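for the recovery benchmark. tokens below, seq after
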């Protein structure tokens, strides 16, 4: 094979205990906590989850200083449980869904909220609001063989040491098995796919210089610094 332009390098995230996880695709579930759904003006009783995507290149590891992105004055944090898949499958039954999971991590779905609000008002896609360079930080991925399959326990986000988001994984409207089963009706899920599972209430804007720390019981924290505006 002769490449006519340089290929992008693979996106790798550290695994707790050693090794790297290659990122394929990133799927994000919207409004999977009732309090956040209401916070964003949504209805937590809707019938099925909805999702959007991010490029793999949006994923960056804990300890990164991410650039404040252009075209926004309202860059907001959303702390989430991230599911890393190990096996492929389509139309996966909920009862079999967890067998497809490699592990779990703390993640941030960073969002240009002003662009999202404008897109909603115009009935347009959210891509520019959600698919942001360095907009999907992910902490160390813990193999499920080590931590099990977390379905309850505190999830929180602090900015400069002050807690802004707090919730419990048990508050998810659609637990992880239901999310995997639902996504697999649209796509053949593959090893390397990441699923961001939604965020509790308390999302808010950050400014350059802010230090964000995401925590989930049983997982290593994720720490990110918001840097200066992107060049």
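predicted aa per position
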């Amino acid at each position: 094979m002769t490449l006519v332009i340089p290929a992008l390098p693979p996106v790798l995230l550290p695994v707790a205990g050693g090794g790297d996880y290659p990122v394929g695709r990133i799927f994000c579930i919207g409004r999977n906590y009732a309090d956040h759904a209401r916070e964003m003006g949504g209805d937590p009783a809707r019938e099925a989850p909805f999702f959007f995507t991010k490029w793999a290149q949006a994923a960056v590891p804990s300890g990164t200083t991410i650039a404040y992105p252009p075209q926004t004055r309202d860059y907001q944090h959303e702390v989430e449980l991230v599911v890393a898949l190990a096996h492929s499958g389509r139309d996966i039954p909920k009862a079999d869904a967890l067998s497809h999971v490699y592990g779990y991590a703390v993640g941030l779905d960073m969002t240009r909220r002003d662009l999202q609000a404008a897109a909603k008002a115009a009935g347009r896609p959210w891509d520019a609001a959600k698919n942001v360079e360095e907009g999907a930080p992910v902490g160390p991925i813990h193999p499920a063989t080590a931590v099990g399959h977390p379905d309850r326990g505190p999830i929180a986000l602090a900015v400069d040491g002050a807690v802004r988001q707090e919730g419990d994984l048990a508050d998810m409207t659609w637990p992880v098995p239901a999310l995997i089963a639902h996504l697999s009706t649209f796509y053949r899920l593959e090893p390397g796919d990441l699923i961001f599972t939604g965020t509790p209430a308390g999302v808010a804007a950050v400014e350059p210089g802010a230090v964000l720390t995401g925590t989930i019981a049983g997982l290593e924290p994720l720490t990110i610094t918001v840097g200066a505006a992107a060049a």
